[in-house]
Amino acid sequence: MADWVREVFSVQKPVIAMLHLSALPGDPGFDTRAGLTAVVDRAKEELDALQQGGVDGVMISNEFSLPYLTKTEPITAITMARIIGQLLGDISIPYGVNVLWDGRASIDLAVATGAQYVREIFTGVYASDFGLWDTNIGEVARHRTRIGGAGVKLFFNIVPESATYLAQRDLASITRTTVFATLPDAICVSGLTAGAPTDLEALSVVKKSAGTVPVFVNTGVRAENVADQLALADGAIVGTYFKKDGVFENPAERERVAELMANARSAR
Fold it and tell me: What Pfam families does the annotation carry (predicted)?
């Protein structure tokens, strides 16, 4: 596994928690009456639950900006930068960002806020619930260098949620060429939607094909399966399970975080 994972997270097989921001200005679900104060207040409460529960890192995303755009409006990353600025004094673990589903905006936000990593769909062409979804990793990689973000680690999700790869290629081939031609820092393997189980067979195929590039399980990790997932993967990204009752829309709950993290520590 790449040395950078231990350097950033100070552990093997880290568990990164998702901090899902409520709907933001411009999103259909934004609560104009409660305003950004309510978004920040919830984010602070959830950050506290995640950190007190013992996660190794946090990824801040606009998860409730449904329906997603593949090229976001400027207001989204600008608002996220403001929110993260208000959270920085409380963040005590490595943090990353994810502007769904916009790799360039994610890198911009990381550079602006000092985030150490981003997760996005950086490669491939897909038929998705959001329409035809195209990417341009060559342009995005050069943009990262131009704006001083060469040190920002890129997590490539090669099994995107709510989408199907248009080329008829098997997962092993996609993984090998992604590693060779596009230089990911890590690869993420997902289920169909947030919280959906990641297929262990798919995870195994990606791990065997990725060489020295770290592979993270990206969805569906639970207290009862984290040991099995980490037996294959080099780390995990967890969102839905940490929520009250395991419900996507609910806030994170410290007790659920602590339960999963105890099992993760025993497994690694």
Answer: BtpA
